[in-house]
Structure to design on (508 residues):
């Protein structure tokens, strides 16, 4: 029984690694988002020719500046989509780990009885708890990935509106920062449960 | 030996209608003897490689100067706006301090002076960079120095002989391209930077001119003024100075060659306008990065070096 729990702990370590890459991607996405939103905010100002002051006498300058900024925005959006793909990769890896961990119970030499699954030895978690925790982590990351997808897909629309998107942008940024589907305390509780010996 | 001989005499040699017209009207002026060609090639290759790696390094210098200029411009604008809105600012507990607003304004004014100097010095660097680019793009040719029959062949960047066009009659320098083809691409690169420099000069003028209405500015800057000593010499090298009018060429976009109406003077510098200036500085509308990367890539490929 203890051996099975040990194996689960290994799975959790793998998930932890994946969550590490998730954090890196999160930092990358946030910086890309702030670059994109500073362009989006500028768009409102640069598409009005009355804001060109001394540049007004350079023919076609408004169109050229606007086109260049749109181009940069496009590039940033593409790289954001690339980041999202990488997020998806992390989600897939976690799914794979969880799927493998189910096999630990089902495919083992002896089918574990429900009673065994719930059996707890000392501070060690039960196998059922380990399974639940993994599934929870998987769900959190799946939902958060879908949330990020919809946030990023909302950006071009705000950019096209060209007016008063500031509030929207702030709200979206906050959503990205908060990661509401991955509550930190809950994640910590799961890991504390699986690695009781590491709590100090 | 035979096929090469016939190759450089053939009129198919790529010679774009570019640069000095008197040369393209009489192509392949007196093909040099094959021994001279043999000696010319390595010297010409070395020179073309050098000039192109200089162009690349200058492009990188441009990027760093342009970005530090932009950060000085941002600081200048921020300082100016703080000064402008000083009266409306809520200073909290500090508002009881005697003359706090006046002192703060004086400080901000001094700061702006500093940022103006820094911005101007970056602009100066950029002019120098573009001037060097222009010179590089014009130094692609490689001329035979001394007598043609001399056993010791030497080469130089300037022609000593009217018959020597410095391109060995338009033969390929490496594999396919003649000197003229390299020159044409170099001039495309240089044109992006000269027109951007020209636009940035206007931005520098506008940014240096922002000042609080309450503070009398002693020297008002005009487009026709020389921003620093020697600027006009460099601008003439870059073909950005009109000798007859005694003022720099007025900026226009690379895409539209029509010259525009005269400048208006003194603009209201509100924060939106200043933001547009800063964005225009960043956008580098005359520089097509994709095309630039493409040019450096294909030139590098032709020269068998990696320009990136």
């Amino acid at each position: 029984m203890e051996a099975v729990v040990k194996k689960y702990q290994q799975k959790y370590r793998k998930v932890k690694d994946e969550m590490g890459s998730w954090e890196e991607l999160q930092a990358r996405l946030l910086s890309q988002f702030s670059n994109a939103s500073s362009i989006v905010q500028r768009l409102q100002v640069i598409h009005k020719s009355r804001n060109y002051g001394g540049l007004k006498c350079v023919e076609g300058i408004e169109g050229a500046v606007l086109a260049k900024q749109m181009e940069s925005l496009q590039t940033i959006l593409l790289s954001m989509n690339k980041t999202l793909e990488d997020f998806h990769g992390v989600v897939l890896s976690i799914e794979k780990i969880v799927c493998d961990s189910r096999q630990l119970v089902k495919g083992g030499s002896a089918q574990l009885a429900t009673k065994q699954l719930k059996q707890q030895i000392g501070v060690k978690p039960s196998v059922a708890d380990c399974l639940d925790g993994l599934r929870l982590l998987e769900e959190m990351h799946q939902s958060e990935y879908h949330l990020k997808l919809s946030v990023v897909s909302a950006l071009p629309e705000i950019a096209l509106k060209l007016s008063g998107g500031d509030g929207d942008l702030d709200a979206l940024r906050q959503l990205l920062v908060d990661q509401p589907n991955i509550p930190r305390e809950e994640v910590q509780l799961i890991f504390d449960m699986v690695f009781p010996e590491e709590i100090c | 030996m035979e096929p090469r001989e016939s190759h450089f005499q053939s009129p198919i040699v790529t010679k774009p209608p570019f640069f000095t017209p008197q040369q393209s009207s009489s192509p392949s002026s007196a093909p040099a003897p094959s021994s001279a060609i043999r000696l010319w090639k390595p010297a010409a290759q070395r020179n073309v490689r050098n000039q192109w790696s200089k162009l690349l390094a200058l492009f990188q210098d441009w990027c760093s100067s342009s970005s530090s200029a932009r950060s000085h411009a941002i600081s200048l604008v921020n300082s100016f706006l703080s000064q402008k809105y000083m009266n409306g600012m809520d200073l909290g507990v500090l508002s009881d301090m005697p003359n706090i607003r006046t002192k703060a304004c004086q400080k901000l004014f001094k700061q702006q002076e500093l940022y103006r100097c820094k911005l101007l010095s970056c602009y100066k660097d950029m002019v120098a960079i573009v001037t060097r680019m222009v010179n590089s793009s014009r130094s692609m040719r490689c001329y035979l120095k001394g007598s043609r029959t001399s056993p010791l062949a030497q080469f130089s960047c300037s022609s000593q002989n009217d018959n020597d066009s410095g391109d060995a009659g338009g033969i390929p320098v490496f594999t396919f391209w003649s000197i003229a083809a390299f020159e044409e691409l170099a001039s495309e690169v240089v044109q992006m930077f000269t027109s951007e420099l020209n636009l940035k000069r206007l931005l520098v003028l506008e940014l240096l001119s922002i000042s609080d209405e309450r503070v009398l500015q002693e020297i008002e800057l005009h487009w026709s003024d020389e921003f620093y000593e020697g600027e006009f010499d460099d601008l003439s090298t870059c073909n950005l100075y009109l000798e007859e009018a005694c003022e720099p060429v007025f900026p226009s976009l690379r895409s539209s060659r029509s010259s525009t109406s005269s400048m208006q003077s003194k603009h209201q510098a509100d924060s939106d306008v200043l933001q547009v200036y800063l964005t225009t500085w960043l956008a580098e509308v005359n520089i097509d990065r994709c095309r630039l990367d493409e040019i450096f890539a294909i030139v590098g490929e032709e020269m068998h070096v990696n320009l990136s």
Remarks:
- The longest helix of chain B spans residues 34-84.
- Chain B has one domain: 34-303.
- The interface with chain A takes residues 199, 202-203, 205-206, 250-253, 255-256, 258, 260-264, 267-269, 272-273, 275-277, 279-280, 283-285 of chain B (CB under 8 Å).
